[in-house]
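To the wet lab folks,

You asked to see what we're planning to order before we commit. Fair enough. Below is the target structure as tokens, and below that is the sequence we designed to fit it. If anything looks off to you, flag it before the synthesis order goes out.
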């Protein structure tokens, strides 16, 4: 029996955006109202799930880090977090310099992004779905449970948090991610219906080009640092990681690319034991590429909607984002799902801004993942040097 053909997330999102842009020019008002109703329900469900996602992912992630404390782990975590912070600030300052000339004065009102069809149509019905607790409460609760679990080492709570993480990951992969293309279709259908779509898409193209260039520059910087530590040619090191980069482009998953990444890291001269330790760990905690992309896309949305985006606000956002990336599941779209909480709590994104952010992020998801796994090679070279094992 032949295996059923499965369309990946990126193609489904691309199809949803294209279909929304085209059909919005022809469909009647009642059909736009149907998808406006769906988007209202999905936004409410997403808002309900976000605090639960924070607790379900962050608490066991912190607990897992604490119970394995050791010299190599500490070195790897500090390096991963340091590179993540660097990529966030590198992205912020670069985009702050470039975006104003690209986006110009093309500012949309937050309400038009949230519900672009609101000037002419409205949902057939609306349900208020209140979360169990707010996002900041969820963050503090996750830190308390995770840190407490790391020190107490209790089996009952640890087992409960691990099982809850499995439930949360199942909700993300089984419900939220499959429904995202429909949600994005509704957003672009409304934009096309109201005539705002062309302005958004024209801005999207420029933003994607900037982010791609920044990814390449980030990898060059990371491998220059790694090459300096190891006394090797950084461009030769980067070239040897290209099979992992290309594999990640196809899978959009750091976890799925681990076998290829591991093989290429060993070819960089990294000790096998350190490579076996570092690569799987970095696939979870090192997301410099995703961080760069989230900062760049969120800054674009802030400029498009007129939201505040000063350096003090973004500094707090980037430091917290580095922590949230540790909790991101290794599935396509996992990083953006883990970051929604702080997008809402720190940058004050509403449901429409989040939806637009998700669409822009997933459109270039594979490039961020490729940057993540390729950068893992640079981290492994540095850990190999700092860990006391000379590179061969």
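Sequence we intend to order:
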């Amino acid at each position: 029996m032949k295996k059923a053909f499965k369309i990946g997330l990126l193609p489904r999102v691309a199809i949803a955006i294209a279909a929304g842009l085209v059909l919005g020019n022809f469909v009647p008002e009642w059909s736009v109202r149907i998808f406006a109703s769906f988007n209202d329900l999905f936004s409410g469900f997403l808002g309900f799930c976000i605090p639960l996602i924070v607790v379900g992912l962050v608490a066991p992630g912190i607990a897992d880090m604490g119970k394995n404390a050791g010299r190599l782990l500490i070195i790897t975590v500090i390096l991963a977090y340091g590179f993540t912070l660097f990529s966030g600030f590198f992205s912020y300052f670069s985009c702050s310099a470039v975006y104003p000339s690209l986006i110009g004065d093309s500012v949309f009102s937050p309400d038009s992004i949230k519900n672009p069809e609101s000037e002419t149509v409205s949902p057939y019905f609306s349900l208020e779905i209140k979360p169990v607790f707010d996002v900041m409460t969820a963050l503090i609760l996750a830190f308390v449970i995770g840190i407490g679990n790391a020190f107490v080492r209790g089996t009952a709570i640890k087992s409960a948090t691990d099982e809850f993480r499995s439930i949360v990951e199942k909700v993300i992969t089984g419900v939220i991610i499959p429904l995202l293309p429909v949600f994005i279709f509704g957003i672009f259908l409304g934009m096309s219906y109201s005539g705002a779509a062309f302005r958004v898409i024209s801005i999207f193209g420029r933003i994607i080009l900037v982010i791609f260039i920044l990814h390449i520059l980030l990898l060059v910087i990371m491998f220059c640092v790694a090459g300096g530590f190891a006394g090797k040619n950084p461009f030769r090191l980067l070239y040897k990681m290209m099979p992992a980069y290309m594999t990640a482009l196809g899978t959009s998953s750091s976890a799925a690319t681990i076998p290829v990444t591991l093989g290429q890291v060993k070819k960089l001269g990294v000790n096998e034991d350190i490579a076996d330790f570092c690569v799987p760990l970095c696939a979870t905690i090192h997301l410099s590429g995703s961080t760069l992309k989230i900062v760049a896309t969120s800054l674009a949305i802030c400029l498009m909607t007129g939201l505040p985006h000063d350096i003090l606000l973004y500094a707090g956002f980037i430091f917290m984002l580095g922590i949230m990336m540790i909790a991101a599941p290794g599935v396509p779209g996992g990083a953006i799902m883990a970051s929604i909480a702080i997008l809402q709590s720190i940058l004050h994104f509403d449901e429409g801004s989040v939806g637009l952010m998700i669409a822009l992020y997933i459109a270039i998801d594979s490039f961020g993942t490729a940057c993540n796994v390729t950068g893992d090679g640079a981290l492994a070279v540095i850990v190999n040097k700092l860990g006391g094992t000379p590179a061969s």
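Structural context that might help your review: The chain has one domain: 10-386. DSSP finds 16 helices and no strands in the chain.

Thanks,
Computational group
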